[in-house]
Each structure stands twice: as structure tokens, then as C-alpha cells.
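Researcher: We're teaching a course module on how sequence relates to structure. For the next exercise, students receive a sequence and then see the predicted structure as C-alpha cells, so they can try to spot secondary structure elements on their own. Here is the exercise chain.
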Amino acid sequence: MGIKAIHIWQIVEMDKKALVKTEESWEGMLPRMLPNMMQKMLKKSIDSGLLHLKVEAERRISSRYSISIK
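Model: And here is the predicted structure for the students to work with:
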């Protein structure tokens, strides 16, 4: 009763910004039995992943350009 999931992240530069596209597919008995619930879970998963990616990217950019004053 598992789920086979394929998740693809595509990150491209556009106008000096990062554009992130995601694609995900789930197959298995649970997605077939509970499609509405699984669609909601998939959306939450993608939204959460994109938020974590955004936070980490902004953290890395800010640490790269932070100025240390002594």
C-alpha cells in the first residue's frame, strides 16, 4: 500500500532571479483510493519544499553579502 513518487525540480535563471518549476507524480493504491486527500498532501508537500528552498537561498545570499564591521 505504498506510493511511488517522482519529483522533478527545475531551477533556471531569469532576469537575475531564480525561477523554480516543480513537477511531481504519485502512483499506487493510496493515490487511486484517496485522490482528493492525496492532491492536498501533494500541494502541501510542494509548497513546503519551495518555502524551504526560498529560505535557504535567501540565507546563503545574505551570508555571501553580509559585511562584518570590527
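Model: If you want an answer key for the exercise: The chain has one domain: 4-64. The chain has a mean pLDDT of 86.
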